[in-house]
Amino acid sequence: MRKSEVLAAEAASCLNRAMAALRDIWEEIGIPEEQRLERTDVVKQHIKSLLDMMVAEEESLKERLLKSIALCRKELDTLCSELQLGPFETEEKSTILQMEKNLRMRVEELQKQKQDRKQELKALQEQDQDLCDILCTALFSIDSGAVPSLEDLDCYRRHVASLNTLKEQRREEFVSNKRQIILLMEELDHTPDTSFERDVVCESEELFCLSEDNIMALQNLLQQLEARRALNEAVCAELRARIVALWERLQIPQEEREASAVHVVGSRAKTRRALQLEVDHLEELKLQNMKSVIQAIRQELTEYWDKCFYSQEQREGFSPFYDEDYTETLLELHDAEVGKMKSHYETHKDLFEAVQKWEENWKLFLELERKTTDPSRFTNRGGNLLKEEKQRAKLQKTLSRLQEELERKVQAWEQEFKRAFLVKGQQFMEYVSEQWQLYHLEKEKEKQERHLKKSRQIETEMLYGSTPRTPIKRRVLSPHTPAKVRKFHGTSIASTTPNSTVRSVFGGTISHSPTSRLPPSGKKAGQARIPTRAAAKPPRPRLRQWNKENVSQLDGTTLSGGCTPTAPAQRNHSVSSVASTYSEFAVIHLF
C-alpha cells in the first residue's frame, strides 16, 4: 500500500474518532437528537467545504501546471527556432509535474543561451565598430535583431581577430614608415606642407587612420622622399666626381683639396649646396685657365681613343681637337666628346678589354720573336732558350684561343648593334690578318737581309780572311774538369770545359797549321769528331728544313777558316755570322 493511501486511511480514522468524540460529548451534555443531527450536519458541511476547497486548490494547481507546460512548449519551440536547435522531446510516461519541471528548466537553459549569444554578438559588434573606424573598413554583415547561430558567432570572432591582426600589421608599418619619413625629412630639410604629412609627422599614432588608402599614401610619401634622397645622393656623387675631375684638370694642390667640401659625407641639402658652390668655384677657375683645361681634356680624350682603338681617321673626325682657339664653346665640345667616348667605352668595356688583352699578348709574342735575332742570348745559360721556346709556344696557343673568342664576341656584337666593330679603322678579323701579314713580311725581310749579310761576309772572308776576335768569357761550370783535347778538321783544340767545342766555334779563336790542306769534305781520317751529347740527339728534320741555307753553306765551307792555302793561318766566326736563331744554333751545334 502506498503511503498516500495509508495517510488517507489515517485521515478517515481521525475523522471517525473525532465524530465519536463529538457524539460522546453531546451525549454527556444531553443535547437532544435533533440538535445532534444539526451539529453533525454542520460538522459534515464544514469538513466537506474544507475538502472541496482543498480539491479545488489541487485542481487549480493541475491546471496551472498544464498551462505552464503549454507555455513552456510554445516558448521552447520559439527558442529552438531562434537558436537553430532541434525540437525538445519530453518523456512519454512522465507526470504533469515532472514534465512541467523539465520543460521549464529547458526553457531557462535556452533563454540563458540566447542571452549569452546576444551579449557576445553585442561585444563583437562593438569591437568590429572600433576596428572599422580605425581601418576604415565595412562592418561585418550580420542581423543584429536575430539570435546568432554558433557558426555565425565563430565566423564573427574570426573576422574580428583578422581585423585585429591587420590593425597590428598596419600599426607596425605605420610606425616604421613614420620613423623613416621623419629621418628623411630631416635629411632633406623638408617641412611637412600638406595635411596628410602633418597628420603623419605631428599627430598621435593612436589617432592616425590606418585605412588602406592612408597606408598606400604613406608608402608613396616614403617612396617620394627616398627618391629625393637618391636623387640627392646621385647629384652629390656627380658633384664630387665633377670636383675631382676639375681638380685633376686644374691641378689643384693637395692642401686645397683636403679643405674642400667634397670630403663631407652624406647627401643632405646643405651638403649638396656646399658641393655645388665648390663646383661653381672650380668652373670659374676653369674658365680662367681655359687652355690648360682643354689640353687636359684632350689628353683624357686621347686615352679613351686609345682604349677604344680609334684610327687616325676616326680621331680626325673630331675637328675641334685641332682647334687652337680656346673658348668656352670649344671646352663644351670637348666635354661632350669625352662624355660620349666614356659612355661608349663603358658600354662595350668587356669587348675592348678582350681586344686589349689580345694586343698585349701579340706584343709579347713579337718581343719574343725579336729576341730570336739577338746573338747574345746564346751566351746565356740556365735553360733560357728552352724557356723562351716554351713561352713562345704557349703564347701562340693563347693568341689562337683569344682570337677565336674575340671572333665570336665580335660577331655577336655586330649582330646586336647592326654595324661593324672597328679596331683602328678596320674590322677586327681584317686587323688581325693584317698584323699576321706584317709579321710574316718582317720575318721574310729579316731572312733576306740575313742571307745577304751572310753572302757578303763569306765573300769578304774568302777574299781577305776572318778577323780574330777575343773569346767570350764564360763562367766555368766545373773548375775541376780535366783538360780535354779535341780535333776539329785535323786541328787540336785545347779546352778546359766540356763545352769548349761550342765556344771555339762561336766566338773563340781556332789555330791551324800553316800548311795547306784540303777542305773537310775531301778528308776521310781527319774530320772533326761530333760531341757525344750532340750525337745522342740527332737534329730534327724540321730544324734542318728551317736552316737548310745555313747547312748548305756549312757543308761547302770550313767552319773556322780552313779554306785555301793562301788564307791566313788564324780565322774565326762570330755567332751572328753563323746562326741567328735558336733552331739554327741547334743545327750548327749538331753538325
TrEMBL record:
Superkingdom of the organism of origin: Eukaryota
Species of provenance: Willisornis vidua (Xingu scale-backed antbird)
Stretches of the chain forming a coiled coil according to its record: 100-130, 215-242, 385-416
UniProt entry tagged with the keyword Coiled coil: yes
Region (Disordered): 511-544
Keywords of the record: Coiled coil
This protein's record includes keyword Coiled coil: yes
Name used for this protein in its record: Protein regulator of cytokinesis 1
Ranges annotated as biased composition (Low complexity): 528-537
Alphabetized InterPro entries for the sequence: MAP65_Ase1_PRC1
